[in-house]
Design brief:
By secondary structure, the chain is mainly α. The protein contains six helices and three strands; from the N terminus they run βααααββαα. α1 runs antiparallel to α4, α1 packs antiparallel against α6 and α3 packs antiparallel against α5. The model has no long low-confidence stretch (mean pLDDT about 90).
């Protein structure tokens, strides 16, 4: 019996695919862009959450300090009222009212201390520390002016916001999919080459059997499958373009909203600073009038409440300014360093 050994190598290189390969490459590139911009968006969101958590802690710490100040102020006033009652200058009702206000202030302080602990735990959770970790924050809320303008912020956002680039990538992927779908209507041309080794000894020595040729294929009729895929691809392009428009509008709205909130809070910082100074003076006068016997204990209590409210409003304005600024920068797509 004779043995026969044959080995064949075939190589096929596409010459023209009607855009199918080009579309697949474009689609892969746009898909990579989409996920890279998604990572950038996640980094920016995480940074904003950390910044907001940080400002939450600072606000809570400032509120604790303010409530301690209020307790100390009311405690000092109670001592003064008790001393005046002891010598028969004021009525027992003044002492009782002062005691009630002090107890209420102490309860408010307890609540503020609890809110501070919750804020610290939340921040630890965001930055990846054990929730019970003690944080030593060396500063309070600060006012740092900026020269942002609304038009510049919107322009920056339209260039840098990752979600817009993701929407652009989605449009590109849809367009690439249409190119792939259209390829079904076009001829496919490929270059093929083969070589064959064969004879009666392994692995085969005779290599004279070779071939080189060009293959052309054309889809003549596929029951409308290709046409349906093309229509679907066109519809997906329209859908992606509409999504891009909506996302762009949402980004503009987010930038505008956070910018206006930041500027509104900035104005409140300036007005509440004045209100705090006025409330401090009003409380000082109310105390002097009460000690002189020409003012009432109610006047002192009302002035104390007004002072606490004014300082709370100032703290809130600082908090709103800082958090709105952080949200504005996220809305603009300001990149995270070393991402």
């Amino acid at each position: 019996a004779n043995n026969s050994h044959t080995n064949t190598v075939n190589i096929t290189v596409p010459i023209y695919t009607g855009g199918r390969l080009e579309g697949a490459i474009d689609q892969a590139k746009k898909n990579l862009d989409y996920y890279q911009y998604g990572m950038s968006s996640s980094y920016q969101t995480t940074r904003y959450n950390a910044e907001k958590g940080y400002y939450d802690v600072l606000q809570a710490a400032n509120t604790v300090n303010l409530d301690k100040e209020t307790v100390d102020r009311l405690n000092e006033h109670l001592k003064n009222t008790q001393a005046q009652f002891a010598v028969g200058v004021v009525a027992k009702a003044d002492v009782l009212r002062s005691q009630v206000e002090l107890v209420n202030a102490q309860q408010t302080l307890t609540q503020a201390e609890n809110s501070y602990e919750v804020a610290v735990s939340s921040l630890n959770n965001v930055i990846g520390l054990p929730t019970a970790t003690r944080l030593n924050l060396s500063q309070g809320l600060e006012y740092k002016p900026n020269d942002y303008t609304l038009d510049n912020c919107v322009t920056y956002a339209m260039v840098n916001r990752p979600e817009i680039h993701q929407a652009e990538a989605s449009v590109g992927m849809a367009q690439a999919a249409e190119k792939i779908a259209n390829a079904g209507n076009l001829p496919q041309v490929s270059l093929g080459a083969s070589n064959q080794w064969s004879n009666d000894s392994f692995p085969g020595q005779n290599k004279n059997n070779w071939a080189l040729g060009v293959t052309l294929t054309q889809n003549i009729w596929d029951y409308g499958v290709t046409a349906a895929k093309v229509r679907e691809a066109k519809a997906n392009i329209v859908k992606a373009q509409e999504s891009y428009r909506q996302i762009s509008d949402n980004v503009r709205l987010a930038v505008r909203t956070s910018y206006l909130s930041m500027r509104e809070a900035e104005k409140r910082i300036k007005t509440t600073e004045v209100a705090v100074a006025q409330a401090e003076e009003d409380y000082r006068i109310a105390q002097l009038r009460y000690r002189a016997g020409v003012g009432t204990n109610t006047d002192v209590m009302d002035a104390s409440v007004a002072l606490t409210t004014a300082k709370n409003n100032y703290i809130q304005a600082l908090y709103d300014y800082n958090t709105s600024t952080a949200l504005l920068e996220q809305s603009m797509g300001v990149p995270v360093e070393n991402e």
